[in-house]
Amino acid sequence: MQTFIENLPKAELHLHIEGTFEPELMFEIAQRNEIDLPFEDVEALRKAYDFSRLQDFLDIYYQGMNVLREEQDFYDLTWAYLTKIHKQNVLHTEIFFDPQGHTDRGIPFETALNGIYNALQDGQKQLGISFGVIMCFLRHLDEDAAMATLEQALAHKDKIIGVGLDSSEMGHPPEKFTNVFARAKAEGFHIVAHAGEEGPPEYVRQALDVLHVERIDHGNRALEDDVLTQRIAKSGMALTVCPLSNLKLCVVDDLKNHPIKKMLKAGLKATINSDDPAYFGGYMNENFGQLAEAVGLTRDEIATLARNGFEATFLPKDQQQALVAKLDAYLATA
Length: 334
Ligand code: HPA
Ligand code: ZN
Prior knowledge:
Blueprint: H1 2-7, E1 10-12, H2 23-32, H3 42-47, H4 54-65, H5 71-87, E2 90-97, H6 99-103, H7 109-127, E3 130-138, H8 143-153, E4 162-166, H9 178-186, E5 190-195, H10 201-209, E6 215-218, H11 226-235, E7 238-241, H12 243-248, H13 260-265, E8 269-272, H14 277-280, H15 284-295, H16 299-311, H17 317-333
Parallel strand pairs: 1-2, 2-3, 3-4, 4-5, 5-6, 6-7, 7-8
Helix pairs in contact: 5-7, 8-9, 16-17
The protein binds hypoxanthine and zinc ion.
Hypoxanthine binds next to helix 4.
């Protein structure tokens, strides 16, 4: 099954580019920017990746991105991610970035965006990986800050396809961002939001009814509400599920208890993604592979998850179909 997964064409739809910052690259960039990391070495940093909830991770995630200063840093970070997923047969990726995690440190919006975007363009040319960029608002900050960030993004509509919502979920419900998401939608951005990772089903409902999301990032806790689950299933809306993230952030206590089969049985359009692979211990193939092993996914279930990934992209229909055709061609021979 592992070989089947490795060669399987895949799309990734839930990936924070700042969450791909591997300790080795972090130390390298820290050194060239003359920044002292509060960790002795790569080993000590990796040891700190032991989380019991989302906030534990976020504290270290924001500390890590502090090393990113120059456009080249953002380029190198993104390029490292692309070369990894290229080896994993990821054909398309829609990545998040957290502009406020940078602008709040005095790094210009354009420094981050251009570094990321230039690497993605090179990835498309040299590795054949198509892409989209989604910028996320940090939900622990207020709506005015999100609105100011959206205004900065308006000059870069050619580079940014959508807006999302991430960071500390509890106490920061989607409705806190009603106005900024309405404005983003009116400006033509795609809309997604993290909901139901730690937050209750009510946050998922708000993401649907107040923010008008087109995909739900995580969405695990929607399963606690049958009516909500049926509604999402009926609408065909995708959930971007992140198995190793769920394990590392204790959303599930054991990968064996991951609700992926329950999601599929409920008719939810679940997809598999890596979230913050440098922190959670694996990229796409590790997420597919370890989940498949833990819950005993069948070949058909794995193929469905991969198909859902392509069908849930924000690509135009013809490009989506071209990717699904690649998947079908693979399935016919594998
Ligand atoms: N959840 C919420 N915010 C985040 C995450 C996550 O998994 N990763 C980066 N920001
Ligand atoms: Zn996430």
